[in-house]
Specification:
Elements: H1 11-46, H2 50-81
Helix pairs in contact: 1-2
Length: 82
């Protein structure tokens, strides 16, 4: 995935970037919820397994994606305030 320099994008490009990253954040939230529910169910049925800890493995990836989304929101806000 290529890195996007937010300061070089126009406001309309930033809005499109926010929409894309927002969809990605929503997707990861859904995936993490499914993994958490599956992990809990597997733990209750069969005891501790890899599925118990799988959401914790993906949490840093989600936090990184969310940080990128937050950066886009901050850039849009800074341009609207200026």
């Amino acid at each position: 995935m290529k890195t996007t320099i937010l300061t070089e994008l126009s406001l309309s490009e930033l809005s499109a970037e926010k929409k894309k990253r927002g969809a990605l954040v929503s997707f990861y939230i859904a995936i993490l919820l499914v993994m958490t529910v599956a992990g809990i169910m597997m733990t209750v049925r069969k005891g501790t397994s890899i599925f118990t800890f799988l959401p914790f493995v993906f949490l840093p990836i989600f936090l990184s994606i969310y940080k990128g989304y937050d950066d886009v929101k901050k850039e849009i806000k800074s341009r609207n305030d200026a």
